[in-house]
């Protein structure tokens, strides 16, 4: 279920719901390309310290309010004030409405990277009249092609928004999203005709194709891994974190759990993504149980130690946790697995009340530099232990100056290398391939490379 439809309270995996009802200033297509969104154009100026947006005309919110510069200003200032997006938008110095259809953002530092950020949740514009409504968590008021019709336990129902500015693009009357924790049950729902489509695991591809379903797949910017709480006395030691890094046989996990299409990785960014460090793509040197044992002994744990893995309700993550549990046992680390409900998992990661979580981590949304800020630098949203990468803040600033990824790649790659040397607070296992299956007659769904979903394009025929 969605954590919240209020962007200030939403969770990292909520875009699958938010993208149905909201739109951002800039559109990022499922393929990851930048395009006009609620803003038809934008201009970086003043050494990348300002961005001026020209807004689309004729856009209405679900409650009838009109999109204008004041609405954009209200959302940005509300998001910056508190909640999950406050850190993401902390670099904004001021927001000026230059005209009803023109807004200028001024930043404290050169911030070309914000073009990417404002194509995500931080760029969402909520109807001004709904921003102060506590009911926004369950009754979003955006400009998107659909609006929430019903929110019940285990199911969210959306209906087509007839006032959508590009209504001709939407041919389906609505969407019903049912929530399943078990992957097998979810696939059976599609095979039996109860559902039109579902995300699946790589190991379900053959079963789906044999059933006559259409399968789409492609790399994205998420990875499966272990988030460590470095406030824990043992996990605060870089040698212990490095021992965990070297204890994992990523190629075995990829082959046996993911049919070989969850790419083994020790860095958060997959091959083909601009922030990927090519020199780290060979994971073989990073599987060395003997070295892991040596590092544990140097840290003062020659006989290993005990730790807890918190994991969500999805069976696939529990299976991954069990595989990791078996591998870590080989170097003396005895793992106990604790299963949490989804909302408990989100809360644990945000409040720091966990030891180590095994889960899906979003590394590229809204921008890979935000992942660095959230996980590798002191004060980060998902850094309860206060891990602070030496030299990280300087490299991060360098990676954020420009909007040209060819200029940003070098500092981002250097960050990935330095994290491994420092003992990673997030231990990647493999880069995820998004896979989904649809019944015959359902078309238009694209692989969300950076976690951006376009449901308006879906077509259904008999």
TrEMBL record:
PROSITE patterns: SBP_BACTERIAL_5. Its main location: membrane. It is found in: Cell membrane. Keywords: Signal. InterPro entries: Peptide/Ni-bd, SBP_5, SBP_5_CS, SBP_5_dom. Coiled coil: none annotated. This is ABC transporter substrate-binding protein. It comes from Sphaerisporangium aureirubrum.
């Amino acid at each position: 279920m969605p954590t919240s439809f209020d962007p200030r309270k939403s969770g990292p995996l909520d875009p699958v719901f938010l993208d149905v009802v909201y739109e951002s200033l800039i559109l990022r297509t499922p393929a990851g390309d930048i395009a006009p969104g609620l803003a038809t154009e934008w201009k970086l100026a003043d050494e990348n310290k300002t961005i001026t947006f020209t807004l689309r005309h004729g856009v209405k919110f679900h409650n009838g309010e009109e999109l204008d510069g004041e609405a954009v200003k209200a959302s940005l200032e509300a998001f910056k004030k508190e909640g999950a997006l406050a850190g993401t938008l902390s670099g904004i110095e001021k927001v000026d409405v230059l005209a009803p259809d023109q807004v200028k953002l001024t930043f404290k530092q050169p911030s070309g990277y914000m073009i990417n950020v404002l194509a995500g949740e931080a760029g969402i514009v909520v109807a001004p009249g709904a921003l102060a409504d506590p009911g926004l968590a369950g009754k979003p008021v955006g400009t998107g092609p659909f609006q929430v019709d019903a929110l019940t336990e285990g199911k969210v129902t959306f209906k087509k928004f007839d006032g959508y500015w590009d209504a001709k693009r939407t041919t389906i009357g609505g969407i019903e999203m049912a929530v399943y924790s078990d992957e097998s049950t979810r696939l059976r729902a599609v095979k039996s005709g109860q559902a039109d489509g579902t995300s699946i695991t790589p190991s379900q591809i053959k079963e789906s194709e044999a059933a006559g379903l259409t399968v789409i797949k492609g790399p994205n910017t998420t990875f499966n891994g272990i988030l460590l709480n470095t406030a824990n006395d043992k996990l605060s030691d870089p040698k212990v974190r490095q021992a965990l890094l070297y204890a994992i046989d990523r190629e075995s996990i990829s082959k046996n759990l993911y049919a070989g299409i969850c790419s083994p990785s020790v860095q958060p960014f997959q091959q083909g993504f601009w922030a990927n460090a090519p020199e780290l793509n060979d994971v073989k040197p990073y599987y060395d149980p003997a070295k892991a044992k040596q590092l544990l002994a140097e840290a003062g744990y020659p006989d290993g130690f005990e730790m807890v893995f918190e994991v969500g309700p999805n069976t696939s993550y529990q299976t991954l946790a069990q595989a990791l549990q078996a591998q870590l046992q080989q170097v003396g680390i005895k793992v106990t697995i604790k299963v949490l409900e989804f909302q408990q998992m989100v809360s644990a990661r945000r409040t720091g009340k966990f030891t180590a979580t095994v889960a899906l981590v979003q590394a590229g949304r809204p921008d890979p530099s935000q992942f660095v800020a959230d996980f590798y630098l002191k004060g980060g949203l998902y850094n309860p232990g206060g891990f602070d990468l030496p030299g990280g803040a300087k490299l991060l600033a360098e990676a954020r100056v420009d909007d040209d990824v060819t200029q940003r790649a070098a500092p981002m790659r250097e960050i990935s290398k330095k994290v491994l040397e420092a003992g990673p607070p997030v231990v990647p296992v493999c880069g995820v391939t998004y896979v989904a299956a649809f019944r015959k007659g359902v078309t238009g769904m694209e692989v969300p490379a950076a976690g951006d979903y376009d449901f308006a394009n879906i077509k259904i025929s008999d």
